[in-house]
Write a structure and sequence with these properties.
This protein is mainly α. α2 packs parallel to α5, α3 runs antiparallel to α4 and α4 packs across α5. The chain is globular and about 65 Å long. It has 5 helices and no strands. 58% of the residues lie in helices and 0% in strands.
Length: 192
Amino acid sequence: MSYKYEPNSLFRAGPRPTLNACVGTNGGPYDFGAYGEGFFEGGFHIINAIKRGEWTIDILIYPAAFSFRHGIELYLKHMVHLFDDVAKSGAYTKTHTLQDNWSAFERQALASKDGVFDPLELSIAKDIIDDFCNIDPTGQVFRYPEDIKGNQHLIGLGVINVEVLEDGMRVLHDLFENWRLALEVMRNASRT
């Protein structure tokens, strides 16, 4: 096989226009919510490929779980931004820590008087996010086999069932989508 590659040509338009993704100002600007949606959908597609037996479950679990974890982070950041737009709270701070992002969102959701944020639903979301934080608080566990000191990740956790993971992620995704849409309505109403 003969290989050829032209430098600086990887991220460009290709011969089939229907396979060109519009990015940057050509397709956006996209926000944290759109990115979060993409990572959740990517995770769901990976799990569906696993369930169809298209590739090795023991390897695909890592990008699936990482996609979901990153999607959670992005949705939370987006919703905190939306709250900031509505309430001018200034609660958003740049962090990759799920607990910090969740705390900022939860604080605003509980203080909201709009009736959108049901305490039971917030509790369910918190439990799911806590499960991720207990396993991967920094976003490194599903990205690398070991930490920076060489300690292996996921010691003591023998298995992860993809259907269980998928079920939890569908619940969380549905909650996030409902909250995101409600916050977008609130933001738009506050601008009029």
